[in-house]
Amino acid sequence: MKGKRLKDVLDDNVFDKPFWDKMFKKMRLLLIKIENTNPSIDDQELRWVSDRCEYYEAEERILTKEEMQIANLYWKKYNIDRDKGLGYK
Length: 89
Known about the structure:
mainly alpha
């Protein structure tokens, strides 16, 4: 049975660099889309996505479950999958 100690939980979490590189490629696409829609640096969504990208590039800090859910909401809001202009497949 799996323990509840922090050590027990962290031991199962393996950093999957290819997965997170792909994820943050999508985050950068999201950042571009938000910048094209609202280029103001004061935009909270723009700042949030930008900060997460910078954290990953500087420290390889990955997203939490809650951050993934927020990113998914932004992804849907800005219709990235339906936007042919970004060239993402």
